[in-house]
Amino acid sequence: MIFSMTGYAIATAEPDAGTLSLELRSVNHRYLDLQLRMPDELRMLEPLLRDSISARISRGKVECRINFAPRQNLRQSTQLDTALLQQLAQWSEQIRQVLPEARALSVAEVLAWKGMLEHPVLQTEPLYAALHALLQRALDDFSGARRREGEKLRDFLLERVAAIEAAYRTVAPRIPTAIATYENRLREKLREALGSADDERV
Known about the structure:
Layout: E1 7-13, E2 18-27, E3 32-37, H1 46-56, E4 60-70, H2 72-76, E5 79-80, H3 82-98, H4 107-112, E6 117-118, H5 124-171, H6 175-194
Parallel strand pairs: 3-4
Antiparallel strand pairs: 1-2, 2-4, 5-6
């Protein structure tokens, strides 16, 4: 069975924590070149995901993209770390006392400050189990896509082989005559060049 080097699959799941989506795509490559793109909260699963993918795919430039959207109630329960916010305000005031021209932090910069937003704790085990099941489903779809593409490639090659064989059957009976004609033409040219009709010299 022929498997194409190109493939694509996408799968989604709805665990309690939110929505997971996983996308697999590959193009031709001599070896397995695997790139994983995923949220930080799932990053610790990367070694397991790599093992699962490499167990099913041995060649190709493969990209696995994972997205996670937490449920609305989890997003709404995100809180500011007020202690850190007050500390940041004090630091900002101290800096401006020494450097009056220093620019104040914007709201976006404050919110982006590491640890400023307190996110609810995710129940990671169910989320990881859902992601593993999602990956297996995507890998099944991915293998099916590569198999279907491989079957199309096989049919294309067989059609071309059949066309070549048909052309050969048409041409083959003419080959001896074509060779004899070419030999005679070459012999005449050699005779003209040598200025001799001596077949042994020719």
